[in-house]
User: What shape does this take?
Amino acid sequence: MTYSIETVGKDLYIDGGWRPGSDGRRIEIFDPATEQPIASVADASVADGIAAIEAAHRAGPAWAAIAPRERAEVLRRAFDLMHKHKESLARLITLENGKALGEARGEVAYAAEFLRWFSEEAVRILGEIGTAPSGTNRMLVIRQPVGVSLFITPWNFPAAMATRKIGPALAAGCSVVLKPAPETPLTALAMAALFTEAGVPAGVVNVIPTSRAGEVTSAMLKDPRVRKLSFTGSTRTGRILLAQAAENVIKCSMELGGNAPFIVCEDADLDVAVASAMVAKLRNGGQSCTAANRFYAHKAVAAEFAKRFAGAMREVKVGPGMQDGTELGPLIHGGARNNVARLVDQALAGGARALSGGKAPAGKGSFYEPTVLFETRDDMPVMREEIFGPVAPIASFESEDEAIELANRTEMGLVSYIHTRDIGRGLRISERLEAGMVGLNRGLVSDPAAPFGGWKQSGIGREGAHEGILEFLETKYIATSW
Ligand code: ADP
Assistant: This one.
């Protein structure tokens, strides 16, 4: 089995087999570096979506009934297979998503880690037992798989967003239907084949790319066999899905947008702050919900931080993801680049200064230059909207209280970053930030062993850690007299 662009399955993966869409439609996939088509995959219809649920529903009980140790070993084999095929999976990611090959390799390793972590969690699904306060009976609490789970994933991490959901679901004993983003279905289809190679039975993992997301998923959410929805994407789409899920009271996990502040205190180690800003800003070309979106530096260090940060940004090698030495690939498509360009142009027109970049380079591909904007203001769209590109707007603050107030002035609450040499101050600020995650002297928080998730409109529920598997387990309390 190989997972190259030539060999990867390009039809729908339902009930352990490949099939074309019921109405024969296809989705064209483009290489963001050239904006040329590279392949086409089957485009699932409503009937295909329902067929996938049917398959998952049929396969679920047998999967839930096998020994947790066996489920763990299947996941562990999938982890090993991802490492064995790391290079071809990374190339697939770069082809359809555009990210630099080095980053794609990093994504494969990160994605695989969710499978290893949840293979370890599969055998740690525990319950509780206690005596009722009245003393008359015992109270037993057990946890059981929630059932058929529907996953909707974005294009920015085509492998990791899939394994972060499939790993805990399989560990818990659930069967799944994955609807990947129409921009990046090839990686998801490769994962379907890889899970089968690892020993996942037919029907337990189904993958259905579709260009008709609204129509197909709303039909699936009306199907009473669907018990769980896990979504990663924009807050806008998350709201629509939550409303649809309300009808059948489907359990929801939502990983939505971010607008992460990055605070640099006057006592920060600026070399560390710049290195960490580079990671927080440029991971995945800035196309990540954890991307640092607004930089607030104390006025005593703001100019120096901005200068060093811009210097580092100018050194970044921009080019096609497959090219040797490329550090920053193109954005996902021309629309994304145009949106980034709009935000930068508005900021420049409003008085911000570009210390690096500030435009899209000429030529083919949806590239944008690594950009540092200095003296931005909070009323500029670049500070309020999710940028999703390699652009870092920097404003300054005068007091700790002001920095916290600015950081929290958003309806989002996914992650915040702080840099200070004073760890007591760092923890004090961390406690006051309205965010599900904090990077304290670190520009990277994601870890399969840690609970990933947001406060406020950034989401509901957690992925990774032990909490990640609880999202796929129902609690049952049994009142018992012995
Ligand atoms: P982005 O704008 O970054 O693509 P979206 O939230 O639109 O973010 O997309 C994330 C995922 O949600 C993708 O798989 C996309 O196909 C899917 N999606 C978009 N709109 C809907 C919808 N109305 N119903 C269900 N899924 C949707």
